[in-house]
Design a protein that fits this description.
Layout (H helix, E strand, L loop, with lengths): L2 E4 L1 H13 L1 H15 L2 H6 L14 E5 L1 H4 L5 E6 H5 L4 E8 L4 E9 L9 H12 L1
Parallel strand pairs: 1-5
Antiparallel strand pairs: 2-3, 3-4, 4-5
Amino acid sequence: MLHLFVHHDAQQDLDELWESDEDAAALIVATLEEIRGNEALLEAMLEHDFGKRGDGASFHVNKWVQLWRQGKDLWRLKVWELEDERKRWRVIYAYIPTESRYYVLGIAPREFDYDPNHPLSQRILAAYEDL
């Protein structure tokens, strides 16, 4: 059975988002709760390019390809309803196969470029290494 957890760093990101954009924070939390309660959606979080626009999924999943190629099991998720409202946030998460667990490690603005040297990337990588 798969499980989804929110790392304290990502919770802090969410807390800050609640202060600046309650609607975006609520949609992210609702999506994570939807996923947490649905084994098929949890499994879909390991399918690169799951949830293409128009296929009925509420979110889209991609590998963080640059880090994936370095052996890091890191992913990003976008919530389609946020995209429709032009509120562009990404949920960054890791999968730990030995534990069958996902860990949400960060909530990033769309402008985040996934540069491994960016401070947010460094924070996420540090949290990943501590898992």
